[in-house]
Amino acid sequence: MLKKVLVITLLSFLTPLFSQPSLGRLASLTSNGIYDLMKSPNPVLATVEFRNASFLSDFEAQTFYQLLSMELEKQENRIEYRDLLVDFSGGNGRFNFSDLSGIRYGLYLVLLDTPEGIGASASVRLLDSSRLLGLIYKTVPIEVNEHWAQSSVNSGGVSAALILKMLQRFRLDNSVFYVKQDIESSGQNELYALSPDHLVIWQGTLPDQGLGKKIPINWTFPKTPSVQNEGRLTFLKVDTNRYIAISANFAPQSLIMQITGLGLEQYSAYPFVPLLSATLGNERYLLGSRFVPGANYYDGKIQLLNITSGLPLLSESTKLAQRYIEPFFDLAVIYRDQGLLNSFFMVGESYRLSMLDAEWVPLLMPTPSYATGANLITIANKWFLTSGVDELGDSLNLYDAADGGLRFIGSMSLEGKIHSISEGILEGQAGVWLLRFTVDHNGAKTKWLEFWRVSNEEK
Fold it and tell me: Of 8-22, 152-166, 400-414, which has the strongest mean pLDDT?
């Protein structure tokens, strides 16, 4: 799906934007030259190499790349452009090549010095044969008093506005520590709130429309003390059966409950926290990890359970395939067709964002440039949202990850602290359920559940 270049707007909040005249002109000239090379019907193009051999900093070079991407995306009726860039450092771009299906042409970019300014060399090749389609070279002078780039997006090139808007807000009991919506619940709005000893389910209603159905949780094993309760609710659909996995950092096992017309029925217990399911090869797997007892992060051992033939009953002697990454706070994925993995996103112990391809090869290393909070989520298999920390409290950081790359859109400050984030749908619009708490001047804590829409259309 063609990505659009976006800016965050929250009611009257607008991230400050700055213009880059010379880089913008160079991007426009380069884009027009690339289009002149592309004469086949509906050509699909992706940048596969980007080097900076000019005096520009890495930040300024990446600004040029973002501006060029915006110019190419504006030509959506003539070129289908896919952005695979994950990171740019040391003068070289790093790309996610785990899914090149449908991409016919590769774009090779180099930034160069010129006597009066800056130049861009761009060649287009067929990916399957490396045959050169054409080469262009554009230059622009740099004005003496020009203001250089301060942002990775440019207001003059915006093709759509991204609205991150709160649609609903509810006050919940302070014991709630995770909320999840069953998106595949036959069109019903089933919302589950997890507390230490019970679930509350709102079926076809919202928390302001009724008390919800309270279901006790029978933890059948000793609890581990924790400073703050953390947990997870994961919905699974295997064949025609639906399940919910209930997990907490004070419990050594996750309860697997089958969802039936009569409610929830105990099915099994798993010695890990189910996080997601995905197709690896020709088999479908459930991926999970274990909470470090009493802590708010996972031990980094990814457990892989084959669920191709159904959700199995596990015993203590069951051996599972494992893959070790590193201890992490949260994990999310972008899928391609048929549930195949495109890329992993992870927040490690150092509160740094990292990214891996479908073969678990690192694409983005955890550096200070990618500092984040403990929560992350993908939305509609396109947007990527993380929590963060700033001087006002917590924040939300938004990225576009639809094509397998990672394009930063912007950030927004929030009052209070974020406890959990999960994907959801409300009024037919994709977004996130945000569970957070605020503390007043007397030290009293209030727990809030909010739904934030993520959309590139004004509604």
Answer: 400-414
pLDDT in tens, 442-457: 888 899 999 998 876 5
Q: Where are the domains of the chain?
A: 18-152, 166-455
| CATH code that applies to domain 18-152 | 3.40.50
**426-448 exposure pattern, b = at least 16 Cβ within 10 A, e = fewer:** beebbbbbbbbbeeeeeeeeebb
Q: Would strands 80-82 and 341-348 be described as parallel, antiparallel, or unpaired? A: unpaired
Does residue 399 contact residue 385 with C-beta atoms inside 8 Å? Answer: yes
Cα angle 72, 73, 77 (rounded to 5 degrees) comes to 95
CB 87 within 8 A of CB 93: yes
**Digit-coded pLDDT (tens) for 192-224:** 999 999 999 998 788 877 778 999 999 988 888
CB-based contacts of 99: which residues, under 8 Å, 6+ apart?
Answer: 336, 340, 342, 358, 404
Can you tell me the mean pLDDT for 260-282?
90
Topology annotation, domain 166-455:
Neuraminidase (2.120.10)
Q: Can you give the pLDDT at residue 5? A: 34
State residue 375's pLDDT score: 92
Domain 18-152 and domain 166-455, same fold? Reply is no
- Note whether 373 and 347 are within 8 A (CB): yes
Q: Residue 149: is its pLDDT beyond 60?
A: no
Cβ neighbours of residue 430 closer than 8 Å, sequence gap 6 or more:
379, 380, 423, 424, 453, 454, 455
The answer to whether the beta carbons of residues 398 and 162 sit under 8 Å apart is yes
The Cα–Cα gap between 369 and 254 comes to 35
The 10s digit of each residue's pLDDT in 18-68 is: 335 788 899 999 999 998 888 777 689 999 999 998 888 888 888 899 999
| Residue 336 pLDDT > 60 | yes
Residue 347 sits at the vertex; the CA angle it makes with 381 and 57, to the nearest 5 degrees, is: 90
Provide the mean pLDDT of the chain: 83
Report the pLDDT value the prediction gives residue 117, as an integer from 0 to 100: 80
